[in-house]
Design goal:
This protein has 260 residues and is of the alpha/beta class. Helix content is 17%, strand content 27%. A hairpin with a 4-residue loop joins strand 26 and strand 27.
Length: 260
């Protein structure tokens, strides 16, 4: 259902039951899935793919050209999954030649004034709280929660089930299953509440705690901790995810909290 004051390019592919409120602008080469609602004054530019049952609130701008001086007008996209909510004045930029697309997964919540820069990959069930800012080529894994006004450095990787304190400057990679806070950003414990809410057993949570005791609490460097974890702890999806994350880290992981 399109309001008469909205503009939809004739080449846009919009499902029949999408609600489009007044003063929306939808350009060519846009695909919008069934059940999605587009609030007033939203701008959707070429190359955007939006899934089913999304809600996009007034003032959001999706698919603008990347704010990257290396961008040369190459064809790139924004891809948004199903059941994702994008609140007021969120901006999501298209990709560049680096990756070709910016991705936001399904069942996500991007609160007001969030910015997702070029070539970011945001997983499923992610919450980005008000005014969180993601620089280019950031990766946020499933079920991560970033507190309000967090700023994430280019190329940073945030692992699954992570919770980051509001107002954080995220300069290093944040490995899975943990809470991070303080300045500079540091490990402050396991995200045990989040894991319980997602039906992780007490046994699994204790396993994750033991992994991070080696990494952050036994006076070992990261290489030593990884070597001991591999040698002494039985393989499991959680153990292997943490080890792979650390081995693949390009920027290095955050440090443990060092008291004054």
């Amino acid at each position: 259902m399109k309001q008469p004051l909205a503009y939809v390019h004739p080449e846009a592919r919009v499902a029949d039951n999408v609600v489009i409120e007044p003063f929306v602008s939808i350009d060519k080469d846009v695909v919008i899935g069934e059940g999605t609602r587009i609030g007033s004054s939203v701008t959707i530019m070429p190359g955007v793919r939006i899934g089913k049952n999304c809600r996009i609130f007034p003032g959001a701008v999706i698919g603008a050209e990347p704010q990257d001086l290396k961008f040369r007008g190459e064809y790139t996209t924004v891809e948004i999954g199903d059941n994702t909510t994008i609140r007021e004045s969120v901006t999501i930029n298209r990709g560049t030649a680096a990756k070709g697309k910016t991705v936001v997964g399904s069942n996500c919540l991007l609160m007001a004034y969030v910015h997702v820069a070029h070539d970011c990959v945001v997983g499923n069930n992610v919450i980005l709280v008000n005014s969180t800012q993601l620089a280019g080529e950031v990766v946020i894994d499933d079920f991560a929660i970033l507190g309000g006004m967090s700023a994430v450095h280019q190329f940073v990787h945030v692992g699954s089930h992570v919770m980051i304190s509001g107002g954080s400057l995220v300069r290093k990679d944040v490995p899975p299953y943990i809470k991070a806070g303080r300045e500079p950003l540091a490990y402050v414990g396991i995200n045990s509440i989040g894991l319980r809410r997602r039906n992780y057993s007490n046994e699994k949570i204790r396993e994750v705690q033991e992994i991070y005791r080696y990494i952050y609490q036994k006076g070992l460097n990261i290489s030593q901790a990884v070597e001991i974890i591999e040698a002494e702890m039985p393989a499991s999806p959680e153990r292997d995810e943490v080890l792979l994350f650390i081995k693949d880290s390009k920027r290095g992981i955050i440090r443990g909290y060092l008291p004054d």
